[in-house]
Design brief:
313 residues, Rossmann fold, Methionyl-tRNA Fmet Formyltransferase, Chain A, domain 2, alpha/beta, Formyl_transf_N, Methionyl-tRNA formyltransferase, 2 domains, 7-stranded mixed β-sheet, 6-stranded antiparallel β-sheet, methionyl-tRNA formyltransferase activity, Fmt
């Protein structure tokens, strides 16, 4: 089976590796996003999928827009039997979907039809879900609307962040792909339509979603903080500047409203910075002032700048 793989970030690399190790497949090409400037020095950097493909001498295509006719023709020239995508970052046009006889399948990091769209892991953690997962589906013209082939569930532990779940689901998706390919190639697999009534969308995170609303419960803020770690990060305002909040302790269940206005620092010591929320209080354990590196709360408190009674916004 001739396979073209489309993917971009670290999440997609294990799936590409699975295809490279699979006896019944030949990866004839990889499609990934163009190299982008990264870091303060804006160094042009290849995608993780491109780096992995080049290790194995696989041809790499990096169209700015896959839907352009010249890009479609390049994919056609590879004569794929199957196209596999994982976090590619562009919607495949019908002209590409129609190329391979076995169709196009996508490794999506959610239990569809819940969390269609670009940020399923962020939303699962931010919403306090106890379970996430991966669904492999046929691709259609809609956004993650295709018929489902296989799925696997992965628990979200209290210690998990979006970053740790990316890693877990990346591995789970690669393992699921390994089990799915033989069934797909033999024609034994049965696709299941998605229930549109249960569809939930998870668009990319906005700047407004990054700011902490201290009127929310301590549990909701805890989920927001870990759901935005390691990117893009939750933040609050302190003296008019952005103060990133990277981690906090899980609040105790059933905590009452703190005896202060939401956003008020109740205490700041070596154990953490305790801030009143709409229900309960949040104990910040790692944060990052504007223009500085991330640090634990004890280190920040030793500077003596944040004291009880300070109001964060």
């Amino acid at each position: 089976m001739r396979i073209v793989f489309m993917g971009t970030p670290d999440f997609a690399v294990p799936s590409l590796q699975t295809l490279l190790e699979y006896d019944g497949a030949q990866v004839v090409g990889v499609v990934t996003q163009p190299d982008r400037p990264v870091g303060r020095k804006r160094i042009l950097t290849p995608t993780p999928v491109k780096v992995e493909a080049q290790k194995h001498g696989i041809p790499v295509l990096q169209p700015e827009r896959l839907r352009r006719p010249e890009a479609v023709e390049l994919v056609k020239e590879l004569k794929p039997d199957l196209i596999v995508t994982a976090a590619y970052g562009q919607i495949l046009p019908k002209s590409v979907l129609d190329i391979p006889p076995y169709g196009c399948i996508n490794i999506h990091a959610s239990l569809l039809p819940k969390y269609r769209g670009g940020a399923p892991i962020h939303h699962a953690v931010m919403n306090g879900d106890e379970v996430a997962g991966v669904t492999i589906m046929y691709m259609a013209e809609g956004l993650d609307t295709g018929d489902m082939l296989t799925r696997v569930e992965v628990a979200i532990e209290d210690t998990d962040t979006t970053g740790t779940m990316f890693d877990k689901l990346s591995v789970a998706g690669a393992e699921l792909l390994k089990r799915t390919l033989p069934e797909l190639a033999s024609g034994r697999i049965q696709a299941e339509p998605q229930n549109e009534a249960e569809a939930v969308y998870s668009p990319n995170i906005t700047r407004e979603q990054e700011q902490i609303d201290w009127n929310k419960s301590a549990v909701a803020i805890w989920n927001q903080v870990r759901g935005l770690n390691p990117r893009p990060g939750a933040y609050t305002l302190w003296n008019g500047d952005v103060l990133k909040v990277w981690s906090c302790l899980k609040p105790e269940a059933g905590a009452e409203n703190a005896a202060a206005a939401p956003g008020t620092v109740l205490s700041a010591d070596e154990r953490g910075i305790v801030v009143a929320a709409g229900a309960g209080a949040v104990t910040i354990t790692e944060l990052q002032p504007a223009g500085k590196k991330a640090m634990d709360a004890a280190q920040f408190v030793r500077g003596g700048q944040l004291k009880a009674g300070t109001v964060l916004g």
